[in-house]
Structures
1.
Amino acid sequence: MQTDTPVISCRNAWKLFGPNPRQYLSQMPDGQSYNDILADGYIAGVKDVSLDVGKGEMLVIMGLSGSGKSTLVRCFSRLHDITGGTIEIDGQDIMALPEKGLIELRRSKMGMVFQSFGLLPHRTVLENVAFPLEMRGQDSHKRRERAMEVIKLVGLDGREGYFPRELSGGQQQRVGIARSLVIEPDIWFLDEPFSALDPLIRREMQDEFLRLQEMLGKTIVFITHDFDEALRLADRIAIMKDGAIEQCDTPDQIVLNPKTPYVLKFTEDVEKALVVHASALAKPLNGEAVEGTPIDGGMTIRQLARTLVNDPRENLPVADSSGTVTGVMSRKAALDLLMGPA
Amino acid sequence: MFLQAILVTALILTAAKPILPDFLVRLPDVWIPPFADWLDVFFEFIRGDMDAGRWGLIYVTRWFADGPLEFMLGVTANILEGRHRWPYFENPLPWSSVAAVTVVLGYYLGGWRMALLAGGTMIWTALMGQWNITMQTVSVLLVAAPLGFAIGLVVGITAWKYRSFDNAIRPLLAVMQTLPFYTYLLPAVIFFKVGPTAGAIATTIYATPPMILMTTIGLRKVSPEVVEAGKMSGATRWQMLTKVFIPTARTEILVGVNQVIMLSLAMIVLTAFIGMPGLGATLLSSMNSFRLGRSLEIGITIVLLAIMLDQMSKAWVAKQPVHFERGTPWYLRHKHVVVALVLFSVFYVAAQFFDMLNDIGRRQSFSQAREIDALIKGFLALDVVKSITGTIRYVLNVWVLVPFRDALLWIPTSAFILFVVAFAYGVGGKRPALYALIFFSLVALSGWWDRSVITLYTVFAAVFLASLFGIPLGIVASRSERWSKRILMLCDTAQTFPSFVYLLPAIMLFGITDTTVVLSVVIYTMVPLTRYTIEGLRNVPPEMSEAADMSGATRWQKLTSVQLPLAVPTMAVGFNQAIMFAFFMVIIAAFIGTQDLGQELQRTLAGTDLGKNFVLGICVSLMALTFDMAILSWANRRKKALGL
């Protein structure tokens, strides 16, 4: 789904909190650690982050609370002004935008969902969802029509006259989602959208979210502190600690090749066979010929478990979604992953 | 160490009074700077002079008074009590029409209970033949309160937007909230003409500070995610303010509205002192001429009006929007407006045929003033009653009040200031001690030391007596859920009464004497004392009481070693409020005849002595602020230390 031109392009972005951050950053020597900066009285919310998000990609930013993930996403939408570096949206430097241009950008391109929903308590569901349209000055009839469409999309029709306090948490977040989608944004920011919900509702909302994403195909930046949620949803995961990105990779790679001890700690308890796809274990062919029916590279090792046990071949050919064989997977490696090394 | 040093010095100064140099006992007159004259020059300068054609503030204020303000007051007065200005009504609205609309409003805000309260108040007022004077008061309220709301909202928003502005007005607001009301009245008269205009302005200025504070608090409390949601929806700054911030801060802003209304009512009643007609003026003149029956009836009207306004505005705070099902017709969506309009018209027409529905004059009214008057006076003349009130008066005066007052007056000024500083230091710490030193030195320099001490003595004596009754009452009440609720409700209701009303029971029992002053202050200050005692004790975390129970504590042990220590910070807040209330009440009671600052203040109202008026007012304010800062800083520190 990725294409080459990034929608969000972030180069050496810094966000420091403190009395005089800009001046401090310009004089700061290279290689200062988070704690060095802290000792100088500044907090590094975002620390030298470089990152691209492609069109239609779902990037999940993962980290514990205080790791800077929310700050980073607020820098993308310029709810925070970055201290240094550049952030470009569709090739446009957002720090260079005047207030008017920024408002225009948000009115036409961005939608955001918040952890505690951020609904306006004095407005009905319909009025909340139509709020961004009202800000644009659309007339009330069109506003209503469009808002109703989105309300139906998130499964809340019949409740449009309710006030937020009359809804359950899950329903309130559906309103938040509907509001963020009403202007048909290209970029969709979700800041821990399901963290405030009960586990059962969370699962249901994740499914709902995947359904919506399949339909809409937006560029998404999704924040979570829940590693399982990240693995379940992400095209790529960026793991953050102390404002910096520790590793940014596909879920398979994060699980198979954690780059730092911090990332390793997250992946240790993960049932890897549930995450890793056959394609990630496949080695290139190097011109060798392979025989027999190939297995589907898009399946997880867990899904292939029965085949792996029954198939006597040492090496299994792996095919991509179009059926072309792209590599070969060692059966032993896959079985080790499934059952643990012998 | 420091504390002991100050205390010892103060004690030595007191003990050594006979041999002390004079300037340590009382400041010599020549040392006293003519603050009043300086202030007069200052006020003269900013005021300008219309006769001499010198430009100044008075051009602006007089324009406002003669133009928009006069106009607005004319409109409300005309509609409610029938004056001949625009919009021209031959007669004011019939009382029954006004009452009907109020009842519907009550029903809309708080259901049948509120409708009953509104209806009862209106009917009582009309039947007692007080409709006209009540409407005189209400017509000013209808201008002053919205004005206070608007000013408070704008200033509050500005303070929220600009920190530096907020920091600049905070101390000003603190002073304004402790300034005695007489100090509001005189400038209002000078700048805004005698009569309803001055009354409305004094009321507005007096009622605005809490609105400012509540607006700022409310706007600050809007959750950051709601703000971000607004920004991400592409709202401009103006849209953010009007569609996100203000509606989301609705609750706090409406609490501000409630306070504006209640303070306005309290102040309008007091504007009787600058000759404003209405409930206050009638009450004042009845009290002065000792017509107890009529005083009582008017007192009840004022109290009913206060309860009604308080309950209705509180119901408005709690009211949440309700959704209608799709396809609800307009007359159901707006059924309250429709019913109000229908009832209004029905009664308007009916009033043209039945005079009773239009206007109940004093002659046809059901007032029993004369009979009640005779009854009360007969009761007071009974030998038993006479001997009881006489004994109380004697004991209070001879054993408590006079010795205490003389003792305070005997203490040399220098020692007195040091005692206060020691108190502020021991209770509040360094900053409050420093302020105490500055503030009380200023009071000494004002040249009104003796009168200030007499004011303080009344405050202390009254709060002490009130504590003797109020705190045990609170402790006993807090033992049962039901009684706590009842007493709390009583206190909350009593707190809405305009302070003026509190003089009534004291006057009834003790006539116009100085005991009355102290007793009215005692009644008034008992309310916060009892209230906060109950609140403090009821809010002790249940697991702590349970821990005490499980440790085998008796009721008394539990009270003294667990509940009271945890409740004390909250009780201190109540104690502080009692002191503030006492300062306020002592000054009002001046018209009965006291020798304190209030008496002098009241005298300035007759003239144009703005400088003196301010000096006296500021003296009261400085003393009140000293205690306010010390006690509140103690309560806050204690709360933190206890982790409450």
2.
Amino acid sequence: MKNIYESQRAMRAMRKAAMQRGVVAVLDIGTSKVACLVLRFDGPELDREVDGLRSMVGRSAFRVIGAATTKSRGIRFGEIDAMQEAERAIRTAIQAAQKMADVRVDHVIACFSGGRPRSYGLEGQVNLDSSVVLESDIGRVLAACDVPDFGAGREVLHAQPVNFTLDHRSGMSDPRGQYGNNLSTDLHLLTIDGTMLHNLMHCLKRCDLELAGVASSPYVSSISSLVEDEQELGAACLDLGGGTTSLSIFLKKHMIFADCVRMGGDHVTSDISMGLQVPLSTAERIKTFYGGVVATGMDDREMIEIGGDTGDWEHDRRSVSRAELIGIMRPRVEEILEEARALLDVAGFDSLPSQKIVLTGGASQIPGLDGLASRILGHQVRLGRPMRVQGLPQAATGPAFASTVGLSLFAAHPQDEWWDFEIPAERTPARSLRKAVKWFKDNW
Amino acid sequence: MLALGRRPASRHDPAPSLWSYRLQRLLLTPGVKGLIRIGAPVLIVFSIAALILADQERRVALREQVDLAWSAVEQRPEFAVRGMEIQGVSPELDTQIRTILGLDFPVSSFHLDLDSLREKLESLGPVESVQLRIGGQGLLHVDITQRIPVAVWRGADGLRLVDQTGAITMVLPEREARADLPLVAGTGARTHIAEALSLIEAAAPIREQVLGLLRVGERRWDILLDRGRRIMLPVEQPLSILETIVVLNETRDILLRDVSLIDYRIPDRPTVRLNDVAVSELRRITAINPEAGQ
């Protein structure tokens, strides 16, 4: 736990340094694309009273000055699969974004969806020394959380205090300065596979970049796709990506659950490829142009030329009806949504006050998906697009960029995490004293 | 039969190589960027100029070109000064100024050094200050403020006219030429002309008898009267003492008496020196009447 704390703190310090320099890049490493935005921070938001309305609720403190997307390589299920290829993809995206921004970026905040994220709800409780909750008490109660055994080789990606309870008052977001005797907290812990994180760090190091923060993709895409009241009242965000479909549940503006289905749009494409006997690129093209999940009578008559490049006339002049295509796509999409439904059931989404589900991500653009999703997931389903941020190019405003945009919002205003609070003072001196004694023993 | 279809085109890899990526990042580093955008062009321009000017002949030719262009500008009629207009002087000073300046018109205004001309004119005695400007019609306007002589000063080598500040305006051939001005003499008299003038003004009632003022020991004044008489004034407040003497003259006719010297150097102890005749006459009278001398 300790070294995670230290490394995350180091990343926070790096983020602060990047803020002072004013330029930071966000990097969304997805299975189908690697997107990079270069953000410029110009200090606090300008007050624009002239318009009569505040701009973007304090979220426009940054401006996107460079954006680039490239097809990702060497990444499967949101995890780095072939290091060299992934590194090249990252370099391509970074270089193009740098070129557009005309500045050199040294600090990168990255997100990815793989690594089998797992959520834990932790509880901690302390008795207060003084009758007032101090900053150090927050650190103490966070350190007092009993950490479950989440397995070797797993690392903590997020550890956010979700709720504070002071004596018998629950649901506090910030108990500092309040009177009470007994402080307890609920901590949401998200762990991922540690090797995944180390691979990413290594990749970025080889690109001469400093990692200034890591976020989980379901978390950041829900930051950008859920509107404020959805985050407050409770909602699930389903990010239908290329290799993974990630799910996160928000309540009271905190993420309380995140998980990931290891299936996504790429699997639909490979189904089409196998079903129609076409290469993957053609399958992808057919999917984006003609894809759908609800067949109508019209679709039986609409024929799609699927072509080919073999030289065999019969093979190259094949065509399928759109209904057939939908017949291939629909079972896979249904499977993905049912897996997501299972995850929601595991998380106990039914017991939440609001049953809102927001679909975002590149695969959410399949026509008719909202109808299918509302049959499987529940009635309150909507398609979400990321919110607008300043300077974002039009090409990067689609739902496929939900996690990219969310990551830039996360870069500008990260939520408090466990490592933002000082670790209790009574632990550190004992340890350093022990270290000093050990050093003496070793040397004399 | 071989397939004649399109060959699989070699797919271009969009990814930059590690070194091109590093090079691009280096070029985007602020210092390097500035060096290349500003430093390199400046260096190129300077080195080209240096290469061209390295040849002596080219430098000389360039210098000639520049001189030619410059003299062409200088010789333009817009810059020509065709005459001089002198204001505020007497005719003789006018001719004197013209000979001193020695300008032969027309002359280019670039060649006129107005500062040195003004210094030349201000070194002239009668001139207090000079304003020089080149006017619109190609005329050099010389506005001169002349010194006004207020006294005649007798120096070791003759008479001079001096103004309020003691500056010499001109040489006076003879005293009678300016009989209206008072005469001052003595070392340091020129620096106290204003005081001398106030004394002369105070001595207006005895104006006919006053010959002039003499500065004694660079600290006090003597008033020289006709018939070799003299009034010695103190260092401190000579004016009020002189007024006392004038009043004394009006009431007691002190200057009508046979007195050769009135010594007021110590105001508390004024002394009068009588002529020999007066002394013997006084002795005679006091011998007759011992109370007459009181």
